[in-house]
Amino acid sequence: MKIFKAAIFIFISFLTATYSYSQWSQTSSGINGGNVKCMTSVGNSVYAGTNLYGVYRSTDNGVTWIQTALNNRTVYSLVVSGSNIYAGTSLYGLYISSNNGESWTQTSLNSQIIYSMYVNGNNIYCGTDQGVYISSNNGANWTPSGFSTNEIYSICVTGGNMYAGVSIAAGVYKSTNNGVNWTQTSLNNRAIYSMYGEGNNVYAGSNNYGFYYSTNAGLNWTQSSFNSSLIYALTGTGSNLYAGTNLGFYRSTDSGVNWGLLGLGDQIVQGIAVSGTNFYGGSLNGIFKSSNSGANWAQSEFHNVPVYSLLNTGSIMFAGTGGNGIYKSINSGQNWTKTSMNGLNIPCLAMNGSTIYAGADNGVQISSDNGVTWIETSFTNEVVFSLAFNGSTVFAGGGYGFHISTNGGMNWTATAFHEVCLALVMSGNNLYAGTYNGVFYSTNNSATWNQTSLTNETVNALVINGSTFIAGTNFDGVFISTNSGANWTQTSLNDKDVYSLSVNNGVIYAGTIGSGIYISTNNGQTWIQKNQGLGNQSIYGLLIANGNIYSATDANAVWKRSISDIIGIRQISGQVPDNFNLNQNYPNPFNPSTTIQYSILRSGIVNLTVFDITGKTVRTLINSMQSPGIYQYEFNASHLTSGVYFYKLESEGFTDVKKMFLVK
Fold this sequence. Notes:
By secondary structure, the protein is mainly beta. It contains two helices and 64 strands. Among the domains are: 35-299, YVTN repeat-like/Quinoprotein amine dehydrogenase (Methylamine Dehydrogenase, Chain H, 7 Propeller); 452-539 and 556-567, 6 Propeller (Neuraminidase); 569-662, Immunoglobulin-like (Sandwich).
């Protein structure tokens, strides 16, 4: 009996493993960066507050990082107290999470800039752009303290006293009665960015005047020899003090009298955290970690980098980022290395022949050696949003108008077409442009332009699928034209900002702002959101390569998912079957979804189509190379009417057809 039960368990486990869907996964190793404003750590968990993109969390001492549900705020301060995480944001006040960042609740202090915090039990003290606020019930209610006229960059509570560092060269204020009354200390002529204290020892980091310390509860202050830096962050353990500065990560071993550079001398360190021998520095270029108390440092795999564009040349993939230049990967996105093009925004990437073109915020740059070196063209004075080619003629949509080069991009001429071209695509010898005023087209290499009927829309993306033109717009989703742009129809994806589009085997992929990825298998009649593992991220670029779809995200670099998985194909067994086979769909009849299972004996192109009783093809489900094995396809017929349909499998000389019934 025990053996029988064990066998059942193994069989069920096999079914669970083989029939499960995969998800989106981040594939960004090497694309590291982000503007980290603050950090804190508890045990193995480390938290980072970023500019614009909220709070990130690591549960493995900073090896890997995930973005929490608070993902669209600038976070200036972080505190962990008990099971709660407190995040002070810019203009949206204080948020609290009690489940490790999976969800957040905005407190009633909801419109201030929270520069600093101190939490003790249910008591919360916040330094804001409107003075100090106090809550005695864990953020449910707030009371402004007696100090409400200044920006408070830092708060420190030690020795029974509260200290506030003020921004406008007013120094440090002190309260001996929990913030009811405040008195300016003798440190009264500096902007104080950071504070830390132990007992009667109080430490203050200033703006450009370095470090000050008091050994008598703020009565007197001494400026240390570390006297010309901007000190963003302070923390300490015993007699050791640590400072995040504009000159790197510093340490003092004698309570602040003397300081030495511990590392990251080439970084502006805005946030720091210390947990045992693990030291963390949050900078304008992401997070750096030392696992040996600062002796050695390495950049963490912290991928808070916007990626605007993706390109596949066959053997190499390129990613154009926001502010970090261009990265490339020689292993399908598993690992990335930065090219010599760095420090720029790259809205678009394109290839013509063996030459790679980068549209940057300073014009067009060219590489003829797979991104090893880049040549700056004569087009240098504006941002380039889009690129297209017609032979050796290169077209560029700039921030101030349209430009053309007839010699491969080395020399450029500004044209009389002054629309900002956010997207460009060729159809034969005709050029189509997506602009802030809809779609335009030219039949004579951009000499003259005509506007299509899609007007008064910001068109961010354009692709062509056979005779179908597809446009992604701001606010109004996706439009489709089946007659070369003469007429346009808004699809059912009609209320999203669509910034990227791609088409593969008849499937349309749409990348949105704040809603992730949608796909349509019926030319836009219906759309399905496909965000498993990705969440509602903003997608600036899409690329289909190597059997995968790659997404360029606004805050988390590059993600990928297999095409077969995203469109509904599952390989449930890799074992070579005895024969080709097409199974009867189940359930049958069905409404609206059914499963089609088939077996592939030899590697080859697999074609699975659905047609109606007249023989008209209504859907091409699969048209791609597949290896031997057993597969399932989840067919959704929500766009079809009730009736009899047939599905046909063709591969390597094998053909079979079966009947199915759709009943609505």
